[in-house]
Design a protein that fits this description.
Elements (H helix, E strand, L loop, with lengths): L2 E5 L7 E5 L7 E6 L5 E3 L20 E3 L8 E3 L5 E3 L26 E3 L8 E3 L5 E3 L45 E4 L5 E5 L5 E4 L19 E6 L2 E8 L5 E5 L6 E4 L5 E5 L6 E2 L8 E3 L7 E4 L4 E3 L20 E3 L8 E3 L5 E3 L28 E3 L13 E3 L44 E9 L7 E10 L10 E7 L8 E6 L5 E3 L9 E3 L29 H7 L3 E3 L3 H4 L11 E3 L2 H7 L4 E11 L2 E2 L15 E3 L2 E12 L2 H23 L1
Parallel strand pairs: 26-27, 32-33
Antiparallel strand pairs: 1-2, 2-3, 3-4, 5-6, 6-7, 8-9, 9-10, 11-12, 12-13, 14-15, 15-16, 17-18, 18-19, 20-21, 21-22, 23-24, 24-25, 28-29, 29-30, 30-31, 31-32, 34-35, 36-39, 37-38
Helix pairs in contact: 1-4
């Protein structure tokens, strides 16, 4: 092999190293042109570092030990394979596939035709836009926000559907899963272990079973945050349906809101407006020993026995009936003739059929129920009394209370009043409380609600234990008046007032005039055996002359209390203050001048409260003291002194006549 070194003539001005035969060799092995470009006909090997402005290989190129031996290989197809990092000062372009262990770009990077041309673009800020699929084949599970095959430090926006092959977790407390453009429906974590679903409406459409599993056994239904209904399962497996609001019924309706069944509040029962339709209800062993037929009839093949209560609208026995142990054994017996014998109380929910009934024990009619004798229904007055005794003749309109006992005690009609609202409990009454009343009513051609007379028993003072002062008030109704007016009162002190409230020292006070039958007079007990220090009155004429008879009219103030006095008339009397100077023992203090505005009672034209009735007090009596310690005199002494004065005058006349 021959080598030659020379310079080519011509335009190229190359420096050439040839190899082969001939003066300059057959072929150039190394050429260096005038621009410094170097061409090597074979492999260029360097044991040290080589710095090249440009390297063009017509065949493949190997650097280091080549790819796979801590080096780099570039094939004739332009495929670059390297075991280390590759750094490019400008754009790296490839028309084929590129496999890189690491790619560092000091500027942006474009793959394929770039974004919008079936490619991808990565900006210098790290934002990547891809026209194709982003796929990671890593299978690392995600247990937090900082692990897993795909991670982002910000939010994740997906324009189309997102499909997850396993769990979807929202790790923050009070996290919200919102649906709809305006977050119309939400699932909100409550910060602990619960979740709230908010949507309007909420429709659950299940092609199979729908299971709601509450580990507490309680299912609660609310309306706008307020509980209305709950289902509760007890430890024994029983399920309770409970309304949250007391006093409400549980109503079942059809599609047209017509009520089919109502479960009433306070265990009041079940109300079914229509029929409960069935062919029959029979004892389940198949022998129909007891049958409830359509229409309600109950038929038993043998004895009907019950260990609990039984309420029957009608009971027909072809033989006698025994209840409990029968009569004589804490029970009841009804024979075939209809005679009832019972050791206990008899409670009737409807009218007792006609016929004689003998009861040897207590008979109790429940509160709110009536006992009517003599009629098939109650009669109303101003109210509808529960106890009524009605009839059309003497015998069936009179009641007798009789007592047969070897003592001085007779029968009693008793009234009882308490301020307590529970029967049998104690709360003391108050002054002016009505303890009882006897009222007479009449049919006025329209109704029975107007009373004619009243006898009222009332508290007359402050009551205490073993101390209940009382009064009796008698009232009558005047012709044309709608209600009664008080006519007479007997107070707790035993004072009697007619047409007025009694007071002062008199046992009997009368407003208006009082008269005696013709030929009669008030009498005084005047037996000599009851008198001592008896003396004849002397100087009577002188005492009589001290008196000043007057004429007068009553003041408007006095007339405002005594409307029975005619204020236009002139009256004659003495002034008690002057009368007292002559007859001091005949003048006393009557009491105060009190103006009483009578109580107003309810009549049938009033709007009467539920706890009141016609004749009850609507507005309480009002008392106003106008004057105190009014003086009064008795003319009794005057009568005796007038007789003595006449006797003195008679003696003087006799002397004059004898002179």
């Amino acid at each position: 092999m021959a080598y030659s070194l020379g310079v080519e003539d011509g335009d190229s001005d190359k420096f050439v190293i040839n190899y082969g035969t001939g003066a300059l060799g057959a072929a150039p092995a190394l050429e260096i042109d005038g621009s410094g470009n170097t061409t090597v006909a074979g492999t260029l090997a360097s044991t040290g570092a080589a710095t090249l402005a440009s390297l063009v290989c017509t065949a493949g190129a190997t650097f280091g030990g080549g790819y796979g031996a801590t080096g780099t290989t570039i094939s004739t197809a332009g495929v670059l394979q390297t075991n280390g990092a590759a750094t490019f000062g400008s754009t790296l372009s490839t028309s084929g596939a590129a496999t890189l262990a690491s790619l560092v770009c000091t500027a942006g990077a474009t793959f394929g035709g770039g974004t919008g041309s079936s490619g991808a673009t990565i900006t210098t800020a790290g934002a990547g836009t891809f026209d194709g699929i982003i796929k990671t084949e890593d299978t690392t599970e995600a247990t937090s926000t900082t692990d897993g095959s795909l991670q982002t430090d910000g939010g994740l926006s997906v324009a189309k559907d997102a499909i997850f092959g396993d769990d979807l977790k929202l790790l923050s407390d009070s996290a919200v899963l919102a649906l709809g453009e305006g977050d119309d429906a939400t699932l909100t974590h409550d910060g602990t272990t619960g979740v709230t679903i908010a949507a309007n409406p909420i429709i659950i459409d299940s092609g199979g079973n729908l299971t709601m599993d509450a580990h507490t056994g309680i299912h609660i239904f609310k309306d706008a945050g307020t509980e209305v209904l709950r289902f509760t399962e007890s430890s024994s497996g029983q399920v309770t349906v409970k309304l949250a609001t007391d006093g409400k019924n549980l109503v079942f309706t059809d599609n047209g809101d017509a009520t089919n069944m109502t479960i009433l509040d306070a265990a009041a029962g079940i109300n079914v407006p229509g029929e409960v339709q069935t062919t029959k209800i029979a004892y389940t062993d198949g022998d129909d020993a007891i049958t409830i037929a359509d229409g309600g009839g109950v038929t038993t093949a043998g004895t009907l026995a019950t260990t609990g209560a039984a309420t029957l609208a009608s009971l027909v026995c072809t033989a006698g009936a025994t209840f409990g142990g029968g009569y004589g054994s804490a029970g009841t017996t009804i024979d075939t003739d209809g005679v009832i014998q019972t050791n206990g109380a008899v409670t009737l929910g409807s009218t007792l059929a006609a016929g004689a009934t003998t009861i040897t024990g207590d008979t109790i009619v429940g509160n709110g129920y009536s006992l009517v004798v003599g009629n098939s229904a109650q009669i109303a007055t101003d109210v509808t009394p529960e106890l009524q005794y009605l009839g059309t003749a003497n015998d069936d309109t009179r009641a007798v209370w009789g007592r047969w006992s070897n003592d001085a005690v007779g029968s009693q009609l008793q009234f009882l009043k308490s301020r307590n609202t529970s029967i049998g409990s104690q709360t003391i009454v108050q002054d002016d409380d009505q303890l009882g009343r006897i009222t007479s009513y009449a049919d006025d051609g329209n109704d029975n609600t107007h009373h004619s007379t009243i006898i009222s028993f009332e508290v007359d003072g402050t009551p205490g234990e073993n101390d209940v002062p009382g009064r009796i008030v008698l009232s009558t109704t005047a012709d044309g008046a709608p209600s009664s007016t008080e006519r007479m009162r007997i107070t707790s002190a035993g004072l009697v007032g007619i047409a007025m409230t009694p007071g002062g020292s008199h046992k009997l006070d009368v407003t208006g005039s009082a008269g005696l039958s013709t030929g009669t007079a008030w009498t005084n007990t005047s037996d000599s055996r009851i008198k001592t220090n008896v003396q004849t009155i002397t100087g009577a004429l002188a005492e009589i002359n001290k008196l000043r008879p007057i004429s007068f009219r009553y003041t408007d103030q006095y007339l405002s209390v005594h409307d029975e006095i005619d204020g236009s008339k002139t009256y004659h009397s003495f002034i008690a203050d002057e009368y007292e100077t002559v007859f001091p023992n005949a003048v006393s203090t009557q009491g105060d001048l009190i103006k009483v505005t009578p109580a107003v009672l309810y009549d049938r034209d009033d709007d009467i409260p539920d706890d009141k009735s016609i004749g009850d007090v609507k507005t309480a009596e009002i008392s106003e003291t106008l004057l105190t310690d009014l003086k009064q005199f008795t003319p009794h002494d005057l009568n005796m002194f007038l007789v003595a004065a006449v006797q003195e005058l008679s003696a003087k006349v006799a002397v004059l006549e004898a002179a």
